[in-house]
Amino acid sequence: MNAPTSAPAFDHNLYAGCAAQIVSHTRELAAKGWTPATAGNFSIRMSADLAAITISGKDKGRLSEADIMVVDMDNRPVATHHRPSAETALHTHLYRRYPDVGAVLHTHSPTQTIAGLLYAPEGRVRLKGYELFKALRGHTTHEKTFDLPVVPNSQDMDELTASVDAVLSEPNTWGYLIAGHGLYAWGKDISEARRHLDAFEFMLGCELEMRRLRG
């Protein structure tokens, strides 16, 4: 584990506000059954150099402020001995790549996990004609086709981050699936990230149901 560092310093009031937002959303998502066991991780960017993020191995339905830590963009814990999740690297990758990203949410709903497995050979879930495209920032019509990337799972975070980096396109896709794992969604703040997460969950559910009906 990376040793904690005391620099850069962070504003504790800002940290407390970020922690409160993360705890509120994680409890709601846990209640939906999207964070089984201790799965999932959630973060908010605090500054160009720091992010508040859930610590590893905690029931996401029972988090408190003490379960939210601070990391720098090299995934090192700041002023704490808590252990960050290995998947912290996937959060900081998005913060480094997209300066306007302010929050990242990662969940493991059954819909997300199944869709990731079913569509892994194609490397994408092709979404078409959904009114809910308009829930995604920058999208104003249902009259389009949207590809949600699917990347293969790996326990090697460098390998997994490289796979993600290779499929992200411009303009921002706002999300991607990891096969057999779950969904990452992000936005300018946690409210927007949550809207994107909920929109993808709905559309993926529709795709799975249409696939079932087609037989």
From TrEMBL:
The keyword Metal-binding applies. SMART domains: Aldolase_II (SM01007). Keywords: Amino-acid biosynthesis, Lyase, Metal-binding, Methionine biosynthesis, Zinc. Belongs to the aldolase class II family. MtnB subfamily. Catalyzes the dehydration of methylthioribulose-1-phosphate (MTRu-1-P) into 2,3-diketo-5-methylthiopentyl-1-phosphate (DK-MTP-1-P). HAMAP family: Salvage_MtnB (MF_01677). This is Methylthioribulose-1-phosphate dehydratase. It is an enzyme of class 4 (lyase). Its cofactor is Zn(2+).
